[in-house]
Design goal:
With 170 residues, this protein is mainly beta. The chain has two helices and eight strands, in the order H-H-E-E-E-E-E-E-E-E. The longest helix has 19 residues, at 2-20.
């Protein structure tokens, strides 16, 4: 029973922490690692599905005089498409938004501000956001992704998708 209470207390602390955090405030790695893989937002259970890749297709060459050490690494920076999907075919709450995303490779964290690049359909069962210009981490590396969701009342929730492979577009 004490283990159950301990778990409840940890999740309550995490929820309070997430609710008080702003997009610019760093979120501790431990809090990101403890983010659940499904949450309830406005009565709808949602989970996160992610596709992560780096583009290695031939393209424009940048000026070598302005390149950083990382930009000298072949390929374009990491991109991810993140889908917040409602379970049981329910509708995503219209007021729900994603205001921050983190990609975690071991102890390295990249934070981004996702954007909804396509108009949202009112009867949608998912919300799709994109993050771009990430680090040039190696293809085949396994990452965890965490997003912060804000509901219509301003409450925030962390939601995770673990074990995502960085794919290479060639």
């Amino acid at each position: 029973m004490s283990r159950f209470v301990s778990i409840i207390v940890r999740f309550a602390a995490l929820a309070c922490f997430a609710a008080s955090t702003h997009a610019e405030t760093p979120v501790p790695l431990e809090a990101l690692r403890e983010a659940p893989q499904s949450i309830r937002v406005d009565g709808v259970v949602v989970h996160l599905k992610a596709a992560v890749w780096r583009d290695f297709m031939p393209g424009l060459v940048s000026n070598p005089d302005t390149q950083s050490e990382e930009s000298a690494v072949p390929g374009r920076p990491m991109t991810a498409e993140l889908r917040i999907i409602a379970r049981k075919g329910l509708r995503i709450p219209q007021e729900m938004r994603v205001d921050a995303a983190w990609v975690i490779l071991r102890d390295r964290i990249w934070q981004s501000h996702p954007s909804e690049e396509q108009p949202r359909i009112l009867a949608a069962h998912e919300v799709v956001v994109t993050i771009r210009n990430g680090p040039k981490w190696p293809p085949q590396a396994i990452v965890d992704i965490v997003v912060r969701i804000v509901d219509g009342n301003g409450a925030t929730f962390l939601l995770a998708s673990r074990g995502q492979k960085i794919h290479a577009a060639m």
